[in-house]
Structures are given as structure tokens and as C-alpha cells.
Write a structure and sequence with these properties.
By secondary structure, the chain is α/β, with parallel strands linked by helices. Helix content is 36%, strand content 15%. It has 15 helices and 13 strands. Strands 1-3-2-6-8-7-12-13-11-9-10 form an 11-stranded mixed sheet, sandwiched between helices. Strands 4-5 form a two-stranded antiparallel sheet. The longest helix has 23 residues, at 319-341. The mean pLDDT is 98. It holds the Pfam family Amidase. GO terms for molecular function: amidase activity.
Amino acid sequence: MAIQRPTIDVLKQIANDLHIQLTDTEAAEYLSIIQSNFDAYDLIDELDDEIPEVRYPRANSYRPDATENPLNAWYYKTEVKGALSGKLSGKTIALKDNIFLADVPMMNGSTTLEGFVPEYDATIVTRMLDAGATILGKATCEHFCLSGGSHTSDPVAVHNPYRHGYSAGGSSSGSAALVSNGDVDLAIACDQGGSIRIPAAFCGIYGMKPTHGLVPYTGIMPIENTIDHVGPVSRTVRDNALLLEVIAGGDGLDPRQYHVKTEDYTSYLDRGVKGLKIGVVREGFNLANMDPKVAEKVRKAIVEFEKMGAIVEDISLPEHALAGALWSPVGCEGLTAQMMHGNGMGFNWEGLYGVKLIDKHKDWRKQADQLSPTLKACMFVGEYGIKNYSGRYYAKSKNITRRARAAYDQKLAEYDLLLMPTVPMVAQPLPEPGCSLTEYISKAFEMIGNTASQDITGHPAMSIPCGLVDDLPVGLMLIGPYFGEGKIYQAAAAFEKNVDWKTI
């Protein structure tokens, strides 16, 4: 089918948008010159897209009602059975609803994307099915994944399994809630500012944000290529390590992947922590909104590591706060350019694009008032930086990121792992309907003070449960060197084996 050709008036408007002025005569001549370019567009329009084959049949999918979905943690339910045997045989899995599962609707928490149905499976979906997993559906996530709270998803908030009416954390709210509640064995979550680790901490489970690029992001709706991470959440360390073994490794389609190193992560689980050096990052306890009760639980957990033979020392890492500050220009300008102006995919990278996602997501412009306040706030910052400063602060922040990463690397050359609270608080009450913009937005970002930094530096980080405050879980975060997930699992498994986290 031939694409629609521009008229003289349309071309003059395009030129004007590019700050170029054309006369009618010039526009007519340019139109004649560029016709051959549009002939190439016609050819491409006639060709089939180059997308992966869908190899596993799936049952009819449906959106569960409230009686079947008391936490609002499911977006769609289905059943996709994988191979008859494999590492994940017998394991049930939920996918965060920004992950492509062919023929099952994907909304990414936003009514503006409702009705989109992916044509192919994400790389990690195929890997899990090949390993024998059964996928039971899509887990609710926050509006385009822009919230550390669980109150921004359309149409309703996700509840914490430990206390109804409280946040499950975000943006992988449904993934963590379903695992914590026992609805599935495992789930896939994604993390750009803490969205694996925050809900894991709030829901009392294990959440691993792997090294940037270790797990392919192919077939997952991006926010910003340089901070996109995907990883497992689970009720046990072993299941978490097992799932990472299955999904990790290059696929040749993701520009986030470079010099990827995988390991047999489950081989680390019985090594113990005797002699392991852990640096306790002072700045991770110095957040302005740190709850002293949360800090106390993490300190008590640190004592348990010492009892098991770990060498634990307090350290200072000033660049931890720097990395958190870098998130604002990188995250806000980056998401505005890629996820919004770039219609979810952006430009200038090799790999597998979601063409049908572009077709659907471009229509956000017609429904922009329906975007969540959290996304709008980030877009306002991002657009201001792009329009008024031409992206120079994004660029400068990416340069300075190397400084923050090097500071982490230096400490991780001295210590096997770094440690700090995952979040400065336990789960908070969900905002009431009709609350102020200030409350709505602050409840979305109040908990990211420690987690955003590792999305900027790319280091692996895992939240493990380490106590209860007012009967709500507390999270402790372990941070490792690039591709050092094995050591994180080593420490987490020793803690899980030797400590009843609920009694700390």
C-alpha cells in the first residue's frame, strides 16, 4: 500500500517545524526530488515485519474481576505452558505488564495504551517457556512505570498483601504482590529507579536488579535505554537465582548488552559468608526521611552477618548521593525523548523494535490529559531541559555518571558487597481518592533515595527482607560489582538460611 505523499503546504509546514522557510516553488521542487525516498517507504510498507515466531500456544486470556483479584495485582490472566522439562519446570510466573506476551493485552498501567496486543514474546518470555515455566498472566504495574508507590495504575491501586489499603510499592506492584501473596511462584519485574527492589522491600520478598544489560530488555516497553533493567522477584533466594540463570545472557537484539558475563548463580547459595567483606554505606542511612525503626532493623541484620563470619565495616560513599541526583536529568529528559516523543522506542539503536507498539502509543498525544500526574511531572522537567538547554544536562549527567560508577567500583574493589536500607520506610497508606497533586506525586517518589543510584551506575542490587516494623516488611539492599550477582546471592542465601527475618 502506498504511503500518503505530502502536499506543498504540508512540506512547507514540516520545513517550518525544522526552522526552514520555503517558497511554494522551492517546496514543489523538493517534492519532486524526494519522491524516490517515498517509493522506498512504499516497498517497506509492503514487506512483513521481522519479528520472532510465537512457539507456545496460550489459553484464552481475560481480565479478572474483583472477587478473583482482591489485591488488584492481576491485569490479565491466561495460561502459557512451556516445555515439558527444564530448570523452571513446575514453576508458575507472572509478567509485569510492560512485557510483551503475544496475543495477551498489554496496558503498562495506562488507559492511553489500553487495547494494545503484542504480536511476539519478549526474549525472556521465550527463555522461561523453553525452561519449562508456566506463565499465568500479566501483573498490574504503575502508569508507564513512573511510581515507587502502587497508586498510579489505571484504573485502581494495588494493595499490599501484608495490609490492605497500604502500598505494595512500584512500579512492579502487581509482580511483588502476587509473589508475596502466593498466587505465583515467581514474577518478572523491571527497574529504572527502584521498581524491582521497592515493591520487594514493601512486600517482604527477594528482588534482584541485575547488572545493566545482563538480562535482555528485548520485547519490553522501555523508559530510557541507559537505565532500563529487568529481573526476578521471588519468595526464596534459590528461586530468584534459578530464574536469573534462565533469563540472563545476550540475545543480539538489545543495545543495553555489552560484554555480558553470566554464571551458575545457584552454585553460590551454599558458600556462606565467612570472610566476605561487606561495606555498610553511611550515606544510605542518612536520607532525610529515614525511619529510625527501619534503620534499626537493618543494623540488627548487619549484626547477623557478622555472627555468620562476614567482615563488616562502615564506609563513606559520597557519590551515592551524586548518582541519585543524576537520575533527574537522565531519567526525566531520557524518558521524555524516548518513551514519549519517541513513541516508546526512540531511534538510533540496533535491535528489535515494537512497531505495533509505536502505532498504538503515538496516540498518547490525543489523550495527554489522561497521563498520570507522576508522568506529567517527569515530562515537564524533561521537556524543560530539552527545550531550554538542548539536552546539555542529560549529556553532562551521562558524562558524570562515569565518576559515580568509578566511585562505586573503587569501594567494590575493597569490599565484596555494599549494604544499605533498600528504602527509608515501610509501606505507607495509599493516598485517598481526590488527594492533592502534592500528596499523589510525593507518595510516588518518597522512597527512591537509595534505589535510583544503582540504576544510574548499573551495578547489581538486591532487596532482601530483614524484619518487620508495625507488622510491615523492612528491606535491606546488597550491592555488588558489575556481573557480581553470584556474591549477592551468596550473602542473601546465608542470611535466609540462618535468620528468621520476621523475628529480627
